[in-house]
Design a protein that fits this description.
With 220 residues, the protein is mainly β. It has 1 helix and 11 strands; from the N terminus they run αβββββββββββ. The relative contact order is 0.21. Helix content is 12%, strand content 67%. It is elongated. The longest helix has 26 residues, at 2-27.
């Protein structure tokens, strides 16, 4: 009888220890400093105007750096949060403008605008965790966030970002693809008015902003 009681006590103690271990693990945050390159794609979703008045917006390359934290809510579900700085290169040509460089000479040209925009980045996400080995975690998931403009003639927007994260007790690797859930207005590109061959021209454009990002990070 005493032997059975001892085995039952040891079994209960083991279960309690496992439960406490899970509770301690789910109560802690795993914090990483990450940075990496990204590609930004601008897609005109709504526009009006002639070919001469529409902007020519190019895809660009830039980068980002942020602090990302993961908090296990259970053995499989993980919450994440991000605070950081985001850079976005804006590179486009406006519609044609008319100028008169000399008497009897009329010139038509597009203005080339290149501007590096700075933003604060905030997001939160939910992920499903696959445990790999002793400390590896593979976490597909989706995040929802906000880009807050910090630049003159910049713009803010919200985004949805599905992604795949791999973490260990020291390393973070990620690949994400974000998109705006609505059309955005880009200063100097979304609205344009000018004169072309003696007639007034204008355009109005709205864009979706998609970004593909790679990052590497270290735990601290």
């Amino acid at each position: 009888m005493q032997k059975k009681f001892t085995l039952a006590s040891l079994s209960a103690l083991a279960c309690l220890s496992a439960h406490v271990g899970v509770a301690q693990d789910t109560a802690s945050w795993r914090v990483y400093l990450e940075a990496g390159p990204k590609i930004t794609q601008f897609r005109a979703m709504s526009y009006s105007g002639t070919e001469e008045s529409l902007p020519q917006v190019r895809d660009t390359y830039s980068g980002f750096a942020d602090v990302k934290a993961f908090k296990p809510l259970s053995n499989r579900v993980v919450l994440s949060g991000t605070v950081g700085v985001d850079m976005q290169l804006l590179n486009f040509k406006t519609g044609y403008t008319e100028s008169f460089p000399a008497p009897g000479i009329t010139s038509y040209s597009r203005e080339h605008i290149s501007r590096l925009l700075t933003r604060a980045r905030l997001d939160w996400g939910i992920h499903y965790q696959f445990n790999l080995g002793e400390s590896g975690h593979l976490m597909p998931g989706v995040s929802f966030g906000q880009m807050i403009n910090l630049s003159k003639k910049g713009y803010s927007y919200s985004f949805i970002q599905p992604g795949l994260y791999y973490t260990t007790d020291r390393l973070l690797l990620s690949f994400t693809a974000s998109d705006t859930p609505y059309n955005v207005l880009i200063p100097e590109a979304s609205k344009f008015e000018s004169t072309y061959r003696g007639r007034a021209i204008s355009s109005e454009s709205e864009f979706r902003v998609r970004e593909l990002q790679l990052s590497v990070g270290a735990k601290f």
